[in-house]
Amino acid sequence: MLGFLKEPVVVTAKINVSLVALTVMGLISRLWGLCYPRAVVFDEVYYGQFVSLYMKRIFFVDDSGPPFGHMLLALGGYLGGFDGNFLWNRIGAEYSMNVPVWSLRLLPALAGALCVPLAYQILVELHFSHCAALGAALLILLENSLITQSRFMLLESILIFFILLAVLSYLKFYNLQKHSAFSGSWWFWLLLTGVACSCAVGVKYMGLFTYMLLLATAGLHFWHMIGDQNLSNVSLLCHFLARGLALIIIPMGLYLSFFYVHLALLYRSGPHDQIMTSAFQASLEGGLARITQGQPLEVAYGSQITLRNVLGKPMQCWLHSHTNTYPIRYENGRGSSHQQQVTCYPFKDVNNWWIVKDPGMQQLVVSNPPRPVRHGHIVQLVHGITTRYLNTHDVAAPLSPHAQEVSCYIDYNISMPAQNLWRVEIVNRESDTDVWKTILSEVRFVHVNTSAVLKASGLCSFASSLPEWGYRQLEVVGEKLSKGYHQSMLWNVEEHRYGKSQEQKEREVELHSPTQMDISKNLSFMAKFTELQWKILTLKNEDTEHKYSSSALDWITMDTNIAYWLHPTSGAQIHLLGNVATWASANAAALVYVCLSLWYLLRRRRKIYDIPEDAWQLWMAAGGICAGGWAVNYLPFFLMEKTLFLYHYLPAVTFQILLIPVVLQHLSDHLCRSVLLKSMFSALVVAWLSWVYFVYCTFSPLTYGQPALALAELRALRWKDTWNILIRKQ
Q1: Which residue of 11, 97, 136, 283 is surrounded by the most CB atoms within 10 Å?
Q2: What CATH number matches the domain at 296-514, 1.20.58.480, 2.60.40.790, 2.40.50.140, 2.80.10.50?
């Protein structure tokens, strides 16, 4: 029974020594001296803030993209024991001893290092030679810009890693298609393609470009499968469903999981709360949750409420009134009603409180049992402190003459009767009998007499801030021509209590005191995800011209650079600069590829076949991945209205670099027909690689920040007048 123990257990394995050596060299090039400089480098000042917020579990919104990349950076901080206590306020600030610099920079460096063997394997899976694959890996290894970007707490190296992993996984899956369909390895590489695509998109939305490219490639390959008569209809359906599951359903689920983890980690109130809805804010620990905890859920007649405008940008504001009246005449000579001002005020204040009154009753308290207000009910809104009724009439608003003035009515004994009835319309209702709910309901107030809608016009334009007589608060109007449900016309109850005091003095005391009733208002994950995703996509910081911003045209010829760090005393500095030899060669390779492809297409149209069919298919497949990857990751930037930097080009140039060995091997195999020409071509390639290595070594002091260079050496590195090499004045 135990006879198998008489013989030794032998395990044999095939090890690609070249691949191992490339991986080791990649790790050395990215991990060497990783803690240097021990200071904030360029965008570390930006991403570091988010890492600190993760460590403290404080909610934030970053409009630059999804949270997965930030979470990976935070994972590095967590593994290093970072407590989040560091002031990320300026580039060049020295890190304190509690900041685990090596750990924070580790994951981007590992991702950058692994791009080297990935490049090798991609060329192998494209059926190019070992020499071509080795050349691609060496070019990625010696690319100064990729080294610089991967050695700091930045996201581009992680993005490029997942992009290349997705491409490699798809190629491996495709190559298994003919002989091992639906095998374990086939499923593994197909699923890994979807996972890697989702991770790329989760790091930065730029990952969508490569994801779309792979989806288009998969669609083209499946279209060719449809024409294969050897495949049954059932088999085709299974292939279609497998690709749909792995390339669409699973990536979508994984993308949702990034946000789920993000929201689970960040459960505390933070600096970005105010751009979220009241319901979202109330779901966070602290902040608004401390105020709204235990509030009654259903708004009833007699409820005391504050009304927050749903738009919430460029700032949050609440419906507000005070004792001051509109001036009898405005600066432009137009007259007003001289009624009490109603504004939208961007701060919490006791004058933000209103009482929901039943027009048919005089009481301002909640009955027992409470009578809830439902969609379509008519109410009056009574200002809590001044007890005047919210009113609008056919008088032009102070800053928006096309709209009606909104005021709190004062009876001047003139022929201007009160018009203070409002119909409650719950926009996000599920049925026409829905109850008006605290925080959750988004409500329009439609004026019964004129059909005007209560609108915070001041949020739609900075010009709609009232003059000094209105304390620079935001204008509120009755919008007569209301089309649709613009968010400036929507309001939600943020703070809410059931009024108990009929007497005004007692009510004023009540308005200053917290409520204690306990009703939960937790949002579902999907509601939170939808709101957060919408904010990420629509929230735009003001794009300002940056010293190192550039245009997409500057990237191809590398007419720009970015100074990442400068030593405070010596001339040591770090720049984002590419390997000039590699970038020039990549441009040449792209030009040769396009010209040769057009030439071949024209000749093939004339039934002239310069290269064998299998070589043509290989040429087009490699171009679809490499040239296509460059195009989809570069051309969209010409359509973007945002501040652009050189590092945005790194995913595109990575694909373009992979195109170089593709073109070189093609030239060697099909254009160099004699032994002499092949030998001469090989010698030129060796000389060219030596040039690439020379340029890498020349600029490595600006890549690694050491050794410090003298003034003359720095001036010598300024190969282009447009490069901003930092030279200290003596």
Answers
A1: 136
A2: 2.80.10.50
